[in-house]
From TrEMBL:
Keywords: Coiled coil, Signal. This is Band 7 protein. Its main location: membrane. The lineage of its organism: Bacteria, Pseudomonadati, Pseudomonadota, Gammaproteobacteria, Cellvibrionales. It holds the Pfam family Band_7. Residues 1-20 form the signal peptide. Residues 185-230 form a coiled coil. InterPro entries: Band_7, Band_7/SPFH_dom_sf. It comes from the Bacteria. It is a single-pass membrane protein.
Amino acid sequence: MRFVSVAGLAASLFMLSACGERVEVPPAHVGKVLTESGYKPEVVPPSKFRLDMCMFYCDKLVTMTIADFGHLEKFKVFMPKDQLNMSFDVRMTGAISREAIDSVFDRIPPDNDNISVNRVYGTYAQPVIRDVVRRVVAKYSINEIASSRESLSHELFNEVSKALKGTPIEIKRLGLADIQFPKVITQAKERAAERRELIEQEKAQFQIQKIQMERDLEREKMNRAIAREKAIGQKEVNDLLAKSVTDKYLAYRTLEVLDKMAESNNKVFLPVEALGTIGMQHAVLNDQVKQVAGK
């Protein structure tokens, strides 16, 4: 009985050791089974499964990330046209090309049974990207970069994508970021901005003064028009008086004045000769003016 029990226990232990390990390919990854003679040809999608049973050498699963990754490269480039150094970042989004999965497994050794995207990027893409970016940016002046940042980012994306053809890395987005211009350039731009602001202020002040002067000119025109109308009116009154006040009319009006004076309690007796004096004629004329003006 003891012999059977020991034999059964040994058989159980043998079966347990022969049972394959339970493994998993997580989401956004692929895997390959590494055997004693190399990788199996099949690429395993995200899944859970058991490896084959083994005795002396056990297979193992090697995974690789295929999700999109974000990366930032920092640059400090000497600008030949300006003879100055300029710092900037290049931000990008990339991924491992699915067509290159087999070649990556064959050429990049795993670390803890995983091939990281950073390892693939550092091997195939980083040297190319740093070389292309430096070459393209150095063609331009700092002012050209400042005024054409979007078009330069587009050019960098095209040039980097072209240079990475045939590598496992494909770039989906790429652009300039956090450009740090040399201090002398920044100060010059600030002074130029201050000058532009002063010019705009002067233009605004000029427009205000222009409006005020135009308003004053219109006021003067109105005043002259009013004065001209008053003069025309006065002339018309004078012309009317000149036509209507005759010697006969003055004599008639003189008699009317005398009649009124006779009816008044404040009687004043004048010599007959005084009736033709300038003072008497002036009184009659003033009365006529009041009547004309009242009309």
